[in-house]
Amino acid sequence: MFDTDLWPLGWPKCRGFPTIKSKFSYCGTGEHVAGREIAEVHTRACIYSGIDYGGSNAEVMKGSWEFQVGTSSGIKAADDLWMARYFLNRISEQFGTIISYHPKPMGKNQPGIGCHHNFSIKKMRDEGGIGEIERVCKVLCDQHDKFIKNYGLGDGNENKKRLTGKFETASFDSCRWAVADRGASVRLQRNVKLKGKGFLEDRRPAGDCDPYRVCCLLAETCL
């Protein structure tokens, strides 16, 4: 979230940087966060409109927020995300602020903006689905270059600025999947491994990704 001077909410004016360590901003309160009123109005708008809305939280970089759409079936996930973005842009007008989905809006020394996709098909959720999950993870990494090109605007070149191997990202020039590892390209939650079924999280898509393209690629590749 940016103020009208194109500097993040809650950051010192005259192009200053926050003195508060970013680790206190994640899911934080009080002086550690900025923009909560906008996030909460957005939450209500999404719920009232019928979007499959999962929740929101303050993110690592002060002035940035995450919201979750889902659980949804099929193309509705992309529809809901598209409308949720529209609502957020309209709401920001009322607060005199500007929303950016750019994957790296504040340069290499600050966290980026992603759009992680949690994904499953029926075989993954069935008993013994971990085998199918691991198969899909391998396919996703085998076709890594194709996904990187389509996981952000501009052939994914801006997203490469986010995927550096820092700030809980994997580097864009390689792909690996792992359990309970925020630095992996594709992550499995620990309880998925323990239960032997569930879903995977593709952490590569950028904040400005086209959700229809991402959902289409996942379906084409994994079904």
From TrEMBL:
Compartments where found? Cytoplasm
| Keywords from the named record | ATP-binding, Cytoplasm, Ligase, Nucleotide-binding
Look up keyword Isomerase and say if it applies.
no
Q: Name one GO biological process term.
A: glutamine biosynthetic process
All residue ranges annotated as the GS catalytic domain in the record:
1-223
Pfam families in UniProt:
Gln-synt_C
In terms of InterPro entries, this protein maps to: Gln_synth/guanido_kin_cat_dom, Gln_synth_cat_dom, Glutamine_Synthetase
Top-level EC class = ligase
Q: Does the keyword DNA repair apply?
A: no
Molecular function in Gene Ontology: ATP binding; glutamine synthetase activity
**Family per UniProt?**
Belongs to the glutamine synthetase family.
**What PANTHER family does this protein map onto?**
GLUTAMINE SYNTHETASE, GLUTAMINE SYNTHETASE 1, MITOCHONDRIAL
Q: What is this protein's record name?
A: glutamine synthetase
